[in-house]
Amino acid sequence: MSRPNEILIAVGIIVAGALAFVGVALVRGPDTLKLPVGVAIIALAVAVGVFARLRFARIVALVVVFAVAVVHLLIALADQPGWVRLVSGILAAAHVYVAVLLNTLPARQYLEPK
Fold first, then answer.
1. Contacts of residue 107, Cβ cutoff 8 Å, sequence gap at least 6
2. Residue 21 is part of which domain span?
3. What's the whole-number mean pLDDT along residues 81-96?
4. Model confidence at 19: pLDDT above 80
5. Of 59, 66, 67, 15, which Cα lies nearest the Cα of 41?
6. Which of 2, 25, 41, 107 has the fewest beta carbons under 10 Å from its own?
């Protein structure tokens, strides 16, 4: 069975979101890199798990994606520069969209254990 588009889009958003989060932290300075790098490592591991069709990838991905969305929402609501809040708001919405994609029928059928 080939990978459905929902899986490919979800993995792409997870990877792009992790890279964007680290990129924003790099622009802001080296003292803000701890959280984004940690989140990026976890997000990339989840993306690899979903892409490789690991056994519990969907459940773990949903937990991680919602946790990352909450982190981005907290950043968007914090006292930060406007562009950081905007990027975090967009990334939060993108991660919620990934959760929706992972709950579609093609993605569930693809990721269900055999």
1. 4, 6, 7, 10, 58, 101
2. 5-111
3. 96
4. yes
5. 15
6. 2
**Tokens describing residue 2:** 């080939």
pLDDT score of 1 more than 90: no
Q: Are 43 and 110 in contact (CB under 8 A)?
A: no
Lookup: tokens for 62: 């949903």
How much is the pLDDT for 114?
Answer: 66
Place of tokens 């991660």: 95
> What is the spatial distance between Cα 53 and Cα 74, in angstroms, rounded to a whole number?
31
**DSSP assigned state of 93:** H
Number of domains in the chain: 1
Pair of tokens at residue 100: 């929706």
Does the pTM surpass 0.85? The reply is yes
DSSP-H helix ranges across 52-81? 57-77
Q: With contact defined as beta carbons under 8 Å apart, do 97 and 66 qualify?
A: no
Tell me: the pLDDT tens digits for 35-87? 999 999 999 999 999 999 988 899 999 999 999 999 999 999 999 999 999 99
Q: From 91, 5, 14, select the one nearest 49 (Cα to Cα).
A: 14
